[in-house]
Amino acid sequence: MLDFDAVRRAFHAQRPQLVIHCAAVSRSPDAQANPELAWRINRDGTAHLARLAADIPFVFFSSDLVFDGLTGNYDESAKPDPSGVYAQTKVAAENFVLANPRHTVLRVALNAGASLTGDRAFNEQMRLAWQRGETLRLFTDEFRCPIPAVVTTRVVWELVNHDQTGVFHVAGSERLSRHEIGKLLAARWPQLHPRFAAASARDCPNPPRPRDASLNCAKVQRILPFQLPAFSQWLRDHPDELI
Ligand SMILES: NC(=O)c1ccc[n+]([C@@H]2O[C@H](COP(=O)([O-])OP(=O)(O)OC[C@H]3O[C@@H](n4cnc5c(N)ncnc54)[C@H](OP(=O)(O)O)[C@@H]3O)[C@@H](O)[C@H]2O)c1
């Protein structure tokens, strides 16, 4: 993706009818540790792809972390106020994407799922840590609206099929603290004898993270033929999924 000429050649050879752009330096600590790379991939790479895709639908994955996290329940009219490098690069990329009225920005929440390598999603990382016998310190004062990645995928297809452009918030319908999320996953994997302790985000100021990144998804919900699920209910309804 950083070889812009190669990307251009591939684009012209393949002539896609739709681009769904997920590639990123996707973890805040990585972006904070290597800002130059984060800006190059997250902003410049996105702008390059958006330019190539100027005449076709383009879906860009942004993040719930673009907000200041002081109030939560952010809808699409809320003004981003990114605090760390990761969120800053996402906001800059959003601005490039939204300059084209054919294009779409999804601010997605914490996604749970099964990655090809088995170690990318937050649920996989928690599971691996418990398998190693670690005790996790989980914040009681940092809130997200986790969503299964399979649901996010369905949302993408619905929006594309309905030619929806502009900004959309895509999250689960339940606001949970990191500690509550940990409790739900611990109950799912009793065989791991999961251990975790309550902690405060105040004790871990770096990299800066919004405390309450919960999203209001009423806009996308009006378009969807299904309800965005509460994470706890989805886990109960899908006992055999790899989450
Ligand atoms: N997962 C979440 O909870 C979450 C929440 C909010 C927003 N998002 C956003 O959603 C998108 C997908 O997230 P994810 O969790 O799937 O991220 P991920 O697991 O880190 O995957 C990112 C992908 O980007 C690729 N990539 C990174 N740099 C590249 C480069 N220079 N050239 C080509 N490919 C490159 C990576 O390739 P390699 O496999 O080769 O490393 C990887 O496949 C990201 O934009 C992320 O910021 C995710």
Q: How are the SSEs ordered, and which strands pair?
A:
Layout: H1 4-14, E1 19-21, H2 28-33, H3 35-52, E2 58-63, H4 85-98, E3 103-108, E4 111-112, H5 122-131, E5 135-139, E6 143-144, E7 147-148, H6 149-161, E8 166-170, E9 176-177, H7 178-188, E10 195-199, H8 218-221, H9 231-237
Parallel strand pairs: 1-2, 2-3, 3-8, 4-7, 5-10
Antiparallel strand pairs: 6-9
This protein binds NADP nicotinamide-adenine-dinucleotide phosphate.
Task: Describe this protein's structure.
The chain has a single domain (8-237), classed as 3-Layer(aba) Sandwich (Rossmann fold). It is built from 9 helices and 10 strands. It has helices at 4-14, 28-33, 35-52, 85-98, 122-131, 149-161, 178-188, 218-221, 231-237; strands at 19-21, 58-63, 103-108, 111-112, 135-139, 143-144, 147-148, 166-170, 176-177, 195-199. The strands form 4 sheets. Strands 1-2-3-8 form a 4-stranded parallel beta sheet, with helices on both faces. α4 (85-98) links the parallel β2 and β3 (103-108). α1 (4-14) packs parallel to α3 (35-52) and α3 (35-52) runs parallel beside α4. The protein is globular and about 50 Å long. The mean pLDDT is 97. Bound molecules: NADP nicotinamide-adenine-dinucleotide phosphate (NAP). NADP nicotinamide-adenine-dinucleotide phosphate binds next to β2.
Keywords:
243 residues; alpha/beta; Rossmann fold; four-stranded parallel beta sheet; 9 helices; binds NADP nicotinamide-adenine-dinucleotide phosphate
Poorly predicted runs are none
SSE pattern = HEHHEHEEHEEEHEEHEHH
Which radius of gyration do the C-alpha atoms yield? 18 Å
Query: What is the domain total for the residues?
Result: 1
Bulk shape = globular
How far the N terminus sits from the C terminus, by CA atoms, comes to 30 Å
Sheet with the most strands: spatial strand order: 1-2-3-8
Bound molecules: NADP nicotinamide-adenine-dinucleotide phosphate
The percent range for strand residues is 15-25%
CATH architecture group name: 3-Layer(aba) Sandwich
How many strands in all?
10
Structural class: alpha/beta
CATH classification, class level: Alpha Beta
- CATH topology, by name, is Rossmann fold
**pLDDT averaged over residues:** 97
CATH 4th-level superfamily = NAD(P)-binding Rossmann-like Domain
**Largest sheet geometry:** 4 strands, parallel
- How helix-rich are the residues, as a percent range? 25-40%
Number of helices: 9
